[in-house]
Amino acid sequence: MTDNSQPYHPSPSAGRPDDRHADTTDFGFRDVPLRQKKSLVRDVFDSVASKYDIMNDVMSLGIHRAWKRIFVNELAPHPDLSLLDLAGGTGDISFGWLRGGGGPAILSDINVSMLTVGRNRALDRGLVSGLNFLAVDAEAIPLADNSVDRVSIAFGLRNCTDKLQVLREARRILRPGGRFLCLEFSRVQVAAFAPVYDAWSFHVLPRMGAAIAGDRESYQYLAESIRMFPDQETLADMMREAGLERVSYQNLSGGIAAIHSGWRI
């Protein structure tokens, strides 16, 4: 991975959906062959799965928990509603949905190592009832059209190769009146935060990854992937392009993260 003493700041259009005819795509700040990105991302999460939750607390100083609570509240769990939790990994969103009184949930992830951790955590918490597990590529979801009421993806969309296809798939499987929500790192809106955030992302986090998870390179990639992700307005435009309506977003912690919402009308 590259040395980021001078962090890269992509243009607002960076992270637009990949050209289906392109030969390369981004993997952090690197260009890699399009067909290789999924395997590279899989390797990252195979490596970090066992320490993922500890590192989330360390990386965000625990703030991710507050973000996720807000996100689950936005999902508005209800016994009559079903949820597909895309890139659900170790299960925080699915667990929040069930604890909030939501109906049946599918905890899905392309990475079996992450999904295994999620299943073990569900067993430990007694949250297996009403929860199913599915190894799935979010670009090709094996569910019928109009089959779920909510689709969520939290800190996962930036790792997908074809983000627009993920959004299209989310809309396809939503029932009319269903809602898609995405929680993701975004573009900082408070100028004073930017230098501190860059120093934390590119100097502190990789060192923590090395010390705690034994993997500096994966956390270097994760920091880079945040910067390559579309900004708030660009992602909102992509959601509209995918056919979602009433698209909106709210910034969290000055834009460090954002929640995007769209409806299937």
CATH homologous superfamily title: Vaccinia Virus protein VP39
The CATH architecture designation is 3-Layer(aba) Sandwich
* Total domain modules: 1
Nearest-integer average pLDDT: 90
The main pleated sheet reads as: 7 strands, mixed
Q: Write out the strand line-up for the largest beta sheet, numbering strands in chain order.
A: 5-4-3-6-7-9-8
How widely separated are the two ends? Answer: 43 Å
Number of helices: 9
The percentage of residues in β strands lies in 15-25%
Kindly describe this structure.
By secondary structure, this protein is α/β, with parallel strands linked by helices. It has one domain (24-263): Vaccinia Virus protein VP39 (Rossmann fold). It is built from nine helices and nine strands. The chain has helices spanning 37-48, 52-60, 63-75, 92-99, 112-125, 163-173, 193-213, 216-228, 232-241, and strands at 24-27, 30-33, 83-86, 105-109, 131-135, 148-154, 174-185, 245-252, 257-263. A seven-stranded mixed beta sheet has the order 5-4-3-6-7-9-8, sandwiched between helices. α2 runs antiparallel to α7. The radius of gyration is 17 Å and the shape is globular. The model is unreliable at 1-21 (pLDDT under 50).
